[in-house]
Amino acid sequence: MNKKLVAALSGGAVLLMALSGCSGDDSDKKVNDWAKKVCDQVQPQLTKIADANTSIQQATSDSSKPADVQKADSAAFQSISDAYKALGSAVDGAGAPPVADGEKTQKEAVKELNATSTAYTGLKTKVDALDTKDQADFADGLKGVADELDKLGKNGDQALQKLQSGDVGKGMAKQAGCQKPPSTAGGSGSPAAGS
Fold first, then answer.
1. pLDDT greater at residue 16 or residue 33
2. Which of 23, 33, 149, 180 has the most CB atoms around its CB within 10 Å?
3. DSSP conformation letters of the chain
């Protein structure tokens, strides 16, 4: 039951990690300047999401106590929600990218990031409301949260994909802040990427 939650959470984080998947040789200074504004704020949020993934995995593997799993999941969902909100603010604060339909693309990406933040807050609320005194009820409730998380990971990243395409994507790929966080000592690279 908890493995499904971890797998679903990993899928949701993958959409954000897509920021680091682009590469290219665009020389447009305006696009690169815009990408730098966004990417300088992306790295801490990618790290926050990776850390939240790790805390859910540890709670799932280290403890079978529902109250411990609930506490870890709740904190992780709040952290992920905060990270998506900060990413929305970063894209919003950078202004429209200097490409065709830049303003529309930016607004859609900000709306999507904020909606994802809200969705994770909703998951936190649901986890907080689960009954930890009855393991079977808790497991059923957690399965429902995992199902919602799975849907969240599969839907809603079209605007981000559009933001990361074309010249903007190439500009973002050049920025250190939009590249995957390096493996930390004792860590094993990106969290649960293939679950």
1. 33
2. 149
3. -HHHHHHHHHHHHHHHHGGGG-------HHHHHHHHHHHHHHHHHHHHHHHHHHHHHHHHHH---HHHHHHHHHHHHHHHHHHHHHHHHHHHHH-S-SSTTHHHHHHHHHHHHHHHHHHHHHHHHHHHHS-SSSHHHHHHHHHHHHHHHHHHHHSS-HHHHHHTSHHHHHHHHTSGGGSPPPPPTT--SSTTTT-
- Tens of pLDDT, residue by residue over 95-152, are 988 888 889 888 988 998 999 999 999 999 999 999 999 888 998 998 898 888 888 8
Quick: pLDDT tens for 52-80. Answer: 888 888 887 765 688 989 999 999 999 99
Conformational region of residue 89, where left means phi above 0, alpha means psi within -120 to 50, and beta covers everything else? alpha
pLDDT score of 49 more than 60: yes
The mean per-residue pLDDT over the stretch 13-41 comes to 64
Cβ neighbours of 104 (radius 10 Å) = 12
CA distance 119 to 121: 5
Phi/psi zone of residue 179: left (φ > 0), alpha (ψ -120 to 50 degrees), beta?
A: beta
